[in-house]
Amino acid sequence: MKRLLLLAVVCALALPAQAQLFHRYSFDDGVLDSIGGAHGTLEGGATVSGGALNLGGGGAHASLPGGVIQINTYDALTLELWLTSSPLNTSFTMAAVLGRTYNASAGEPDWAGYQYIMVQPTRDDDVARVAITRNRFEEESGINRAPEINDGVEHYIAVTVNSTDLAFYLDGSLVATAPLGENTLDKLSNDLAYLGRSVYQFDPYFVGSINEFRIWGNALSADQIAAQFDAGPNVVVPEPSAAALLGLSLLGLAFRRRA
What we know:
Elements: H1 2-12, E1 21-25, E2 41-43, E3 47-49, E4 52-56, E5 61-64, H2 66-69, E6 77-85, E7 96-101, E8 113-120, E9 128-132, E10 141-145, E11 154-161, E12 165-170, E13 173-179, E14 192-195, E15 207-216, H3 222-231, H4 242-258
Antiparallel strand pairs: 1-15, 2-5, 3-4, 4-15, 5-14, 6-11, 6-15, 7-8, 7-14, 8-9, 9-10, 11-12, 12-13
């Protein structure tokens, strides 16, 4: 019995972090969240077809329920996107952002975004950028990658946040990490969550498509991110391993015998 219990525990510990996938948008039928029920809406002429969110600029975006996602309650985070960015993107576009825009009653300038985490495929300075801030851009913890992403080819972007660091992955490989400092997840706003639109009021809308968007409640490892990229947008990995499933079965058997 002791050996059976030991084997069961060892095998069960092989269970991967898959259970912490909180939200998944595959765009097979509108902006439906197949995991967490945080369903979004199409805005400004955005469409869904062929398993992708299609964004033609000019106001087209998807709006997700930030108050349901509650990004500032996460202890750690991974954002994943498979996107195709058009050469028409040459300025400050955001493919994904969770945060808020200005508060006029607080005297904040009407062009600014605040308390956000964002994925920015293009900028006026010809780089791609991911960033997180407790306030606005002056306080950002961010990572730049040159050149900007606007080649019309599908790319995989992952952004992870743990208790100390921000990390940026492109096509399965680490670009860089940056220390968070005071820009921790609990400082973010739950007001807004957008795909294809910025929380800065005068930034252009993203032009292109998003094939998949996921929000995890943990910071995936480099190996897990490489595996996600290799699997592509239609598969979530890691799946439960044979060892993990065996462990669960053995635990059940052990407890039945004890009973």
